[in-house]
Amino acid sequence: MQITSRHCTILILIILAYLGLGISYALATPPLEASDEYKHYPFVQFVQTEGRLPLLEPENPGLWLQEAAQPPLYYLLMAGVTAGVDSRDLAEVHHKNPQAFIGNPGQVGNKNLIIHDAARERFPWQGSILAVYMIRFVSLLLGVGTIWVVARLGLRMFKPTVALLAAALTAFNPMFLFVYTAVNNDSLAILLGSLGLLLLVGIWQDLPDLRRGWWRYLLLGLVLGLGLLTKLSLGGLLALTGMALAWQAWRKQRWELLFGGGLLVLATAVLISGWWFVRNWQLYGDLTGLTPFVAVQGTRDAALTLAGWVDEFGTFYRSYWGLFGGVNVAAPEVFYVVMNLLALAGFVGLLKWLWVKANREHFARVGGWLLVAWVGVLLMLLIRWNIISPAFQGRLIFPAIGAINVLWAVGLLALGRAGWQTKMAVGLSIVLFVIAALLPWLSIRPVYALPEPLTAVPTDAQLAEPILFTGSDGQMRLVGVEMMPEQSVIASENPVIVTLYWQMDEPVTDDYISSVHLLGRDLASVGQIDRYPAMGLIPTSRWEVGDIYQDVYHVYVDKGAVAPSQLLVAVSLYDDVAERPLPATNPAGVLIDPVFVGEGARLGMKTAVEPQPEIPLNAPFEHGIRLLGLDGIDNAANIPLMLYWQANDTPAADYTVFVQLLDQEGNWLAGADAPPVNNFYPTSLWQVGDSIDDLHILMLPDALPSGNYSIIIGLYDPITGVRLLRTDSRGDFVEIPLIIEDEPG
Question: Shortest CA distance to 19 belongs to which of 135, 147, 130, 122?
């Protein structure tokens, strides 16, 4: 298929637009914050400064962690790019945030993987900061090669419109831009994977004779060998090459394609990459180097369930379109909806296009199955790896992005009439460009903006008395707390929102960690966030005396928390160096432990569980309270009574439950009065539909004679002492007969 000068001009414009977008992504993302950059760059820096590859020791993995077991080509190239840079300041630049919310886009703040020094990172760059930006911009140029390869693939298999739309779909994918402006071996792997697929498609179509076209097999082997030296997953393309050549050899009865061309591809790839596998065997006893890689990265604690796969699929598609930072900076949800709908439209359009027999024949003739197979191979490898260790990220199938986007372009264009296809492609490309241009400044950059200290605490948030936290070398105080009124949450679904206001009293040299705890029934911890104050961005050692910072926490309740319940909020400061919490006092020096700052929220149940009490009662009381029944009556010295209440309204006051033992004459003998759930879920928090399990222990008097007794149950206002009436006109309590028998003697 011939391409005109007009098509070339459009492709150049796409590439120029990509370069402009890439620069904005590189500048919007602080150094070492892009995809695993804080691990990949130390690998490059070690090669640059030491002149050799690092050895991965699981007991002491170094700043590069598991990445030292990666194939080395990308790191060797980038070490050469930065050879003239003095990067010995890496240890100072590489100040990790120990509590960063990695892989959690649902949280606010504390998404920075690194504690940044604004002065050090300011232009003109120097040292390791300069090296990171140099590598980012060189990686951006590798993306130009990938876009060109994708266009060539679309042109070879279909037509110029498909080629240009596929190039635009690639260039304006925000995650593609993000990966290509990061220090990450994925950028080279994507280029080599795309180029290898293009060369394989060309061999499939042309079936070059080995005597005159040997160089094409040699070139494919060269690319695949370099691919194996970049990322192990590209070995899947070598396997696909063998399958394709075996199929053509059988179809055409030209076995030299497999035993000549195929062996030449394999021999070239092994010749180029074999030394790396030999080195792995000598160092780790493992050809691939995955053994030490997994030892550092870790494996799953438990097998993935179907629900787990569904949950992780959200990360998969988001990280294909754009999930930035440490897989924790998301785009607006509408972006993912739009991109998923476009993907679905392309899939439907591709099926429509393939419905036509002539199109199916063309698809088979040009090797369309290779595109599908390459995507499938990478997806299977990713699924297999995700079973071992959490890694279900869409960017990991980007070596097949050319195949995906060519098929996607075919499908999208198939939905339009012939005369409108070019206009549709141009319009879609412009829309995607605008979206990609907005995301760095709407979604990425704001996450890393350093908060400014306040001059005062909002009046409504001020504490009557500040709480002082005293460390070994200084003092901080909690001067304000804000919580949204009447918060109601479901475990693991929506957070309790707490805002703290910290002030520096005396300078400290340590970086304290602030903690916000949620306490449920029996003061059991049901949720917690630990991080540096000031949203995780400014450690306390950098605060000035008098600085006040607003600190917002979104604390999610653990899935296993007992509900329903009231949630209490406790706060602490922790000295990570001394490994101890800082003592908290009021201004008079009185110790406060724990530091409760409020009743944070109501923990509800996602689905109300209908209890099945041993003794059903169904007794209705005022204010929509119903006693469904109870468990636990026996003849022991202590009678545990599990009461089951149901709320059909929201009571306005906090009532106390009375559980009393009476003799035959109605005289009081014992009682177990207490607020419901021992005051961990007072009635004023009850919501319509709640089912509340409420345990009371009735202590029987000593030497209680045998006979007939009764237990009465009801509720009363603790302020007035007035009991709640039953709405079925049967008094103000429920009576349960109890027979006490002498133990046989």
Answer: 147
Note the pLDDT tens digit of each residue in 643-662. 999 999 989 899 999 999 99
Helices (H), 172-262: 174-179, 186-206, 210-228, 235-252, 256
- Tell me: do 635 and 580 sit in the same domain: no
Task: Tell me, yes or no, whether 664 lies in a domain.
Answer: yes
Domain assignment of residue 196, yes or no = no
How far apart, in Å, are the Cα atoms of 481 and each of 108, 461, 467, 557, 596?
17, 5, 11, 20, 11
Contact 49, 75 (CB under 8 A): no
Dihedral sign (CA 513, 517, 523, 527): negative
Q: Which domain holds residue 72?
A: 5-185+298-445
Pair 528, 379 in one domain: no
How many whole angstroms separate alpha carbon 284 and alpha carbon 282? 6
Task: Tell which residue, 100, 158, 491, 166, has the closest CA to residue 327.
Answer: 100
Amino acid at 437: A
Rounded CA gap, 18 and 160, in Å? 19
Task: Indicate yes or no: pTM above 0.70.
Answer: yes
- Across-strand partners of 735? 712
Report residue 634's pLDDT band, with 50, 70 and 90 as the boundaries: low
Answer yes or no: is 285 within a domain.
no
Q: Is 244 domain-assigned?
A: no
| Residue-level pLDDT at 743 | 60
CATH number of the CATH domain containing 534: 2.60.40.2550
- Spatial CA neighbour of 658 closest among 613, 718, 700: 718
